Amino acid sequence: MCSPVGAGWFIKRLNTFLANVTTGFLWFALVFWVFLETRSVLVTSFMGGAYMLLVAVVGVPFGTWVDRTRKRQVMLVAQVFTTVAFALALVLLMTTGGVPTIYAGDEFAFVGVKEERAGGDDAVRPEFSAPPWAANPDGAQMFALHQYLIGLRRRHPWLHTAKTAAVRLDNRQYLYETRDGEQRLLVALNIDDASMTAALPGPAELLAGSGAPPQQRVTDIVVPPHGWQILQPCLLYTSPSPRDRTRSRLPSSS
Hints:
Layout: H1 7-38, H2 41-68, H3 72-94, H4 137-155, E1 163-169, E2 173-180, E3 183-190, E4 196-209, E5 217-223, E6 228-233, H5 242-249
Antiparallel strand pairs: 1-2, 2-3, 3-6, 4-5, 4-6
């Protein structure tokens, strides 16, 4: 069962951690350089006090200015690219090992665009009610994708302990195999503006993908730009060798 905490939560925390570490490192480097030049702890103390005073005085006005700056159009344009990338990230999340987590609202493609009007924070802090919530076309499509991928994991419970290995990897295209013993899935992700073509290690059943391709057995794939596909390798039957057939006719020693 999926937890109501999504990958976005961890990414935000990681981004905050890296920003704090970088800021702290630069600040320490500056203070240490001043100490080496002056050999005075008093000077470094004045620097620390001035920094805290600057944050206290400038922080609120700067945040207010950012909130009131016209940025809605930029955020709406970014929303289109985010939706496409989010679908690929969701496929990656739900087809690799471990326990996937979903942040509440991700399944409806909530973007939280802040608008300069009364109630402009409503999208940032939506009021949750009993599902299903009303969703726009993008949200309905994202909800359907969540339903399918969660169902995929339930039909393949071995994904919980699966390991992932790259079959093909370049800067903008990724074909990987998720395996647990004899259970396998092949997943293709394409963030390029051109189609992705690749030959498979063997025949596979096309389960799903961008544009709802028909289920069929294939030996190579064509993934549309900014698209994805999930395939299940076919179990190949290997006929027994003459030696094995001879052994099978031998009487048992017991």
